[in-house]
Write a structure and sequence with these properties.
Elements (H helix, E strand, L loop, with lengths): L8 E9 L13 H4 L4 H13 L2 E3 L2 H7 L14 E5 L18 E5 L5 H8 L4 E4 L7 H11 L4 E4 L3 H9 L5 E7 L25 E10 L2 E9 L5
Parallel strand pairs: 1-6, 1-7, 2-3, 2-6, 3-4, 4-5
Antiparallel strand pairs: 7-9, 8-9
C-alpha cells in the first residue's frame, strides 16, 4: 500500500538578482525589483500560483510588501494564503486578510489572545502550531491533512526560506533571474538564517530545466537533502 503523504509538495519561487539579492536594500519591498520582470514572467508567476493549492509568505514580507497573493493575470482559482506568524503580529489592514481569497494564519501558543481574536474576526482561519514559534513541520501536516493541500508554493522571505529548507520541507526551487547587481552587505538574499560551518551542511540542488521567459532566464531545481540520499 502506498504511504499517504504527510505534507504538501513544496515549490520555492522567487525573483533574484545576479548577485543573489531579493530587494534593493534591507526593508525595501521586493515589488521594486519585480516591476522589472518581463510581462511573460509575471504571467508565469501567476500561473504557478493558480497551479498550487496554497501559497506561503512570511509575516515580515507581508509587512513590507503588503501583497495580495492572488491569481490575477491568468484564469484560475487563487490558492489558500498561508502566513506563519508566531505572535500573530499581522496588521489588520494587511491585504492578505481581505476576502478575495481564503487565508490561514499559523500562530504559536504564545500569541496574545486579543491579536488572535482580532485576526479571526476578519474571517480568517487561525491554527496554533508550536509553543513559542510556529512549528513548520506540524503546520505542513495540518495543511495536508486538514486543508487538503497537495502542492504549495513559497514566495520568499529569506527567513522563511531558510527555516523551510532547514527542516527539509522544500522539494523544488524555481528562480526568475533579473539582470541586475544591487550589492549591499545586509541586502536580503534568497536564504537567510544562520551561516553553515562546513560544506557538509550545504543543501544540494539538481538543475532540471532552464529557459527564457520573455527576457528573463528561469532555472528550475530539485532539492537534494544529504540525509535523504
Amino acid at each position: 500500500m502506498t504511504a499517504i503523504p504527510t505534507r504538501p509538495h513544496v515549490l520555492m519561487m522567487s525573483e533574484i538578482t545576479v548577485d543573489g539579492k531579493l530587494t534593493l536594500k534591507r526593508g525595501a519591498s521586493s515589488k521594486i525589483l519585480m516591476q522589472h520582470m518581463a510581462p511573460e514572467t509575471e504571467v508565469l508567476l501567476h500561473q504557478t500560483r493558480a497551479d498550487c493549492d496554497a501559497i506561503m509568505v512570511g509575516s515580515r514580507t507581508i509587512a513590507i510588501d503588503n501583497s495580495y497573493l492572488t491569481v490575477r493575470l491568468v484564469e484560475g482559482k487563487s490558492p489558500l494564503r498561508v502566513i506563519p506568524s508566531g505572535m500573530a503580529a499581522i496588521s489588520l489592514d494587511a491585504n492578505v486578510l481581505n476576502s478575495d481569497a481564503p487565508t490561514l494564519v499559523a500562530v504559536s501558543e504564545a500569541a496574545p489572545e486579543e491579536r488572535v481574536a482580532a485576526i479571526r474576526a476578519k474571517g480568517v482561519d487561525v491554527v496554533v502550531c508550536g509553543s513559542e514559534h510556529v512549528d513548520l513541520p506540524a503546520l505542513m501536516q495540518v495543511l495536508r491533512e486538514d486543508y487538503g493541500v497537495e502542492k504549495m508554493m513559497i514566495e520568499g522571505g529569506p527567513t522563511l526560506n531558510w527555516h523551510m529548507l532547514r527542516h527539509g520541507l522544500v522539494d523544488e526551487i524555481r528562480l526568475i533571474h533579473l539582470p541586475f547587481i544591487v550589492g549591499g552587505e545586509d541586502t536580503p538574499s534568497l536564504v537567510g538564517g544562520m551561516h553553515i560551518e562546513s560544506e557538509d551542511e550545504m543543501i544540494c540542488l539538481g538543475l532540471q530545466k532552464y529557459y527564457m521567459c520573455g527576457t528573463n532566464l528561469v532555472t528550475e531545481y530539485t532539492v537534494r537533502y544529504r540525509n535523504s540520499e
